Amino acid sequence: VLTDPTQMCGPILAELLSIPSVYFLRGLPCGMDSDATQCPSPLSYVPRLFVNNSDNMTFTQRVKNVLVRMLEFVYCKPFFAPFEELADEFFQNQVTAMDLLSRGSIWLMRYDFVFEFPRPVMPNMVFIGGINCDQKK
């Protein structure tokens, strides 16, 4: 199943049919893409989404990065809760969004590694930059 994992219907369908899932995405909220693939993501090195830090952070930026990470637990749970309820209905047991996402076969990342901050990735994560490019006027 080729799907965008932000809407969890594709991962649920792939798991229900026991077929591989290929995720096509720009990034997941709360850094779930690196968590689901078990990429190392140290808070002192990898900046969180929306903090506008680089990989070279000062101490205060690192503290801000940790605080943003703690807030992600609060605002991400309601985002994925409806999908987790839907998965619970289909599978008749407790399934989290992280469980479903961790079963992805290939992650097609729609950004270019050159333009993003350096971070560790797993072998099943493939960068396909240039998909979102638009010609300047």
UniProtKB/TrEMBL annotation:
Keyword terms of this UniProt record: Glycosyltransferase, Membrane, Transferase, Transmembrane, Transmembrane helix
Annotated compartments: Membrane
Main localisation: membrane
Its membrane topology: Single-pass membrane protein
Gene Ontology molecular function terms on file: UDP-glycosyltransferase activity
InterPro entries for this protein: UDP-glycosyltransferase (IPR050271), UDP_glucos_trans (IPR002213)
Pfam families membership: UDPGT
Recorded family membership: Belongs to the UDP-glycosyltransferase family.
Protein name from the UniProt record: UDP-glucuronosyltransferase 1-3
Organism of derivation: Nestor notabilis (Kea)
